[in-house]
């Protein structure tokens, strides 16, 4: 882009939109900002009056991010590890997601990342979440086995998302060929950069899959991701 003197999205074919919808993650504790000049310490939130991981914490965190920080789309991070126990874990995920919904309000889209639980729990988690209509459910099981992912997601009425650790277009092609995904989440830093993610987005468009680029890594990666977002006809939301 610098060499040609034009933005990357123009080199990809031009901008499809001039505004990019962003989402903010919601965890089990209240969000906070680091004041200018102070060291960043991710483990020391300033307010611990609400128990971390509780429904109250999820609800209040969502309210703050929407009402005070101005985000209009969220993604809840609620997991239960890779064990099949406790059996109450599925209920906890659904209850905490419902709390995020309450805190965010009816006009805010909310997705959820359940962080690769055991495949034996995947269908239960999807079924428990579907009444709450998440924007998408991210990686409802470990995604190394695309064939197993496809078996689990085929009967889901909620869009299923995955791909943040996949490298190259071939595994995305395999997932799309097996109808395993509705939302593609390549990460520019893992998948192969702007050029490869451009190809992945085209594959997704041909299979009616949306694009939601994964990007928690750096401002530079986010700036590059936004160039693809501006171009992609099948763009959904940007992390």
TrEMBL record:
Organism ancestry: unclassified sequences, metagenomes, ecological metagenomes
**What is the name of the protein in this document?**
Mandelate racemase/muconate lactonizing enzyme C-terminal domain-containing protein
Matching InterPro entries: DgoD-like, Enolase-like_C_sf, Enolase_C-like, Mandelate_racemase_C
Ranges where the Mandelate racemase/muconate lactonizing enzyme C-terminal domain occurs: 55-159
Q: Which PANTHER family did the record assign?
A: D-GALACTONATE DEHYDRATASE, D-GALACTONATE DEHYDRATASE-RELATED
Pfam entry (one):
MR_MLE_C
Which species is the source of this protein? marine metagenome
């Amino acid at each position: 882009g610098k060499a040609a003197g034009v933005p990357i999205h123009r080199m990809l074919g031009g901008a499809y939109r001039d505004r990019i919808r962003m989402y903010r993650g919601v965890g089990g504790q209240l969000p906070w900002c680091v004041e200018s000049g102070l060291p960043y310490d991710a483990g020391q939130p300033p307010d611990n009056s609400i128990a971390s991981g509780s429904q109250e914490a999820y609800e209040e965190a969502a309210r703050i991010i929407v009402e005070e920080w101005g985000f209009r789309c969220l993604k809840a991070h609620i997991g239960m590890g890779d064990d099949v126990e406790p059996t109450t874990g599925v209920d906890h995920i659904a209850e905490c997601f419902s709390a995020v919904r309450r805190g965010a309000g009816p006009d805010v889209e909310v997705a959820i990342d359940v962080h690769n639980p055991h495949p034996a729990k995947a269908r239960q988690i999807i079924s428990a979440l579907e009444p709450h209509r998440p924007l998408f459910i991210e990686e409802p099981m470990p995604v190394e086995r695309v064939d197993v992912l496809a078996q689990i997601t085929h009967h889901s009425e909620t869009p299923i998302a995955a791909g943040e650790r996949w490298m190259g277009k071939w595994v995305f092609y395999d997932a799309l060929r097996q109808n395993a995904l509705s939302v593609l989440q390549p990460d520019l830093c893992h998948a192969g950069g702007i050029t490869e993610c451009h190809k992945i987005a085209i594959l997704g468009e041909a299979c009616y899959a949306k694009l939601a680029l994964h990007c928690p890594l750096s401002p530079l990666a986010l700036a590059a991701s936004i160039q693809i977002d501006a171009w992609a006809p099948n763009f959904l939301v940007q992390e």
